[in-house]
């Protein structure tokens, strides 16, 4: 472990995440101070999500670093980070329980919307971010801001779950193509 | 998984930099008079087509992704890369399933180096501690080189004293490269090295290439003197060291005196060409061993050294190498 060895856990690996946004990622160029509340919150959410999915028991006294940087913030920042980090962890060969697929969902004018973009997020309605392990249907992280009537919660969650499964299909296809390609090239 | 920050970068999209080169045409691209600028080559990104579709080779093994059920039969023992879900065996990495009698494991495509006794590794010293050195070998934990496992200059065999401990920094400092052999593996996976033979020790002038450990083929010997004029050490941990062949084998030195004489231009060109060939083989995912590197070198002789890194030239060279290797086998 680089850095402070005192944080090492004796029986599992530590997952260290860092979330940052490029200055050109939003509509107005903003100088982001590096420890601001939004990125700390995102960092914590990413850490919780991946600690649930990565099999950390296999690597005691070690640290896994996941650094994500947003290049274009057009809605669903957290979800894009989770999907990208899932692919990165699979590519690195770190064992995970399952893919982690994330999607956001909202509720506007009695319809549930999935995968909100920046305009829909900025409108101020309720938003739900869901990170799902698709095979076992386990939720790694569920976050909501603003207020939503409990009657509507069911359909919003269904929309988010359907979107996560769609993302899972895409990620799965990419991973399988890559594995097949490398296995064919390595050949023997 | 890594002891030091293993940066897991998000997978690059399929928009590779290897696109069609755009040649600057005609007078628009000419530099204004008075400014001496060489013609620049600009590449546009193009969607990369999957290599290997045209190589019709069925690997015949199951390829799995994390979360896939391998089997529901509980009679199997689970190996690396799998975990027990409720009543079924589930894969935890993306790779090929390997079945040996009752043991099922999934071999991931790209992992950190897992030490096995007897492997040759090339490593870099990161720390000098009380009676040992910590060596970075592209594995999850730093490898350890104990003072008692290091051969003293002159090859003498004696008990290491307190003066030896104080003089550790004279032998190896932070940043030095060494070649060593794995002596044993600790229970947590850390590897213990030894340099108890005169062929191991500190490395002098040369070029280091870092590749994934899964691309280095396991062979009887990993020290090769290639006929093209350079020597190569293929470390099992993915560190490959290319260096000029020493004229006479310096037996007494025991690997401590680094040869700092200037290397001739011819040797340096050979070493650069070998390095670019190795990068080409790695990009096209061909296993690295002395024959494949040599054939790739010979196939690349018709191109300039810097052209070898262009994607189309890489494909051509590696295809020729593959064909020669197939002829060799069959």
UniProtKB/TrEMBL annotation, chain A:
Pfam families xrefs: RNase_PH, RNase_PH_C
UniProt keyword list: Cytoplasm, Exosome
Keyword Cytoplasm: yes
GO molecular function: RNA binding
Domain of life: Eukaryota
Cell location: Cytoplasm; Nucleus, Nucleolus
GO biological process: nuclear mRNA surveillance; poly(A)-dependent snoRNA 3'-end processing; rRNA catabolic process; U4 snRNA 3'-end processing
Keyword Cytoplasm applies: yes
GO CC annotations, alphabetized: cytoplasmic exosome (RNase complex); nuclear exosome (RNase complex); nucleolus
CDD domains (alphabetical): RNase_PH_RRP41 (cd11370)
Protein function: Non-catalytic component of the RNA exosome complex which has 3'->5' exoribonuclease activity and participates in a multitude of cellular RNA processing and degradation events.
Protein name: Putative exosome complex component RRP41
Species: Alligator mississippiensis
């Amino acid at each position: 472990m680089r850095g402070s060895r005192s944080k090492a856990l004796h029986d599992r690996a530590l997952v260290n995440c860092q979330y940052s946004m490029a200055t050109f990622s939003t509509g107005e160029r903003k100088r982001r101070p590096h420890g601001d509340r939004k990125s700390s919150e995102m960092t914590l959410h990413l850490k919780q999500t991946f600690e649930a999915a990565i099999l950390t028991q296999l690597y005691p006294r070690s640290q896994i670093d996941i650094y994500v940087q947003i290049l274009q913030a057009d809605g669903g920042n957290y979800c894009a980070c989770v999907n990208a980090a899932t692919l990165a962890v699979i590519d690195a060969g770190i064992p995970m329980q399952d893919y982690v697929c994330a999607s956001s969902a909202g509720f506007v004018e009695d319809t549930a919307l999935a995968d909100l973009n920046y305009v829909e997020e900025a409108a101020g309605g309720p938003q739900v971010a869901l990170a799902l392990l698709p095979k076992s249907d386990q939720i790694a992280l569920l976050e909501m801001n603003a207020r939503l009537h409990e009657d509507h919660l069911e359909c919003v969650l269904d929309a988010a779950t359907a979107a996560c499964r769609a993302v899972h299909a895409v990620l799965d296809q990419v991973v399988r193509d890559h594995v097949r390609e490398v296995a064919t090239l390595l050949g023997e | 998984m890594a002891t030091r920050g293993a940066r897991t970068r998000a997978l690059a999209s399929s928009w590779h930099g290897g696109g069609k080169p755009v040649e600057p045409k005609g007078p628009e691209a000419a530099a204004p008079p008075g400014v001496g600028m060489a013609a620049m080559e600009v590449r546009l990104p193009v969607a990369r087509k999957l290599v290997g579709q045209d190589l019709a080779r069925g690997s015949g093994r199951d390829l799995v992704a994390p979360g896939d059920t391998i089997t529901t039969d509980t009679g199997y023992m689970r190996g690396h890369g799998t975990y027990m879900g409720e009543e079924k065996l589930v894969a935890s990495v993306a790779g090929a399933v390997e079945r040996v009698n009752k043991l099922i494991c999934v071999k991931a495509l790209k992992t950190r180096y897992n030490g096995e006794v007897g492997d040759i590794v090339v490593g870099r010293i990161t720390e000098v501690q009380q009676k040992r050195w910590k060596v970075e070998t592209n594995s999850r934990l730093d490898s350890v080189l104990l003072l008692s496992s290091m051969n003293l200059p002159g090859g003498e065999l004696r008990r290491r004293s307190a003066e030896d401990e104080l003089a550790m920094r004279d032998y190896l400092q932070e940043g030095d490269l060494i070649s060593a052999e794995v002596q044993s593996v600790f229970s947590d996976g850390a590897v213990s090295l030894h340099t108890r033979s005169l062929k191991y020790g500190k490395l002098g002038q040369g070029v280091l290439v870092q590749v994934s450990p899964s691309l280095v083929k396991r062979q009887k010997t990993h020290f090769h003197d290639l006929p093209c004029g350079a020597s190569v050490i293929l470390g099992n941990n993915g560190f490959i060291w290319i260096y000029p062949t020493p004229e006479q084998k310096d037996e007494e030195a025991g690997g401590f005196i680094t040869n700092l004489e200037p290397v001739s231009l011819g040797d340096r060109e050979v070493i650069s060409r070998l390095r670019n060939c190795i990068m080409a083989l790695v990009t096209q995912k061909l296993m690295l061993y002395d024959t494949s590197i040599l054939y790739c070198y010979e196939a690349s002789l018709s191109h300039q050294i810097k052209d070898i890194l262009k994607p189309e030239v890489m494909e051509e060279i590696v295809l020729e190498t593959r064909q020669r290797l197939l002829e060799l086998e069959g």
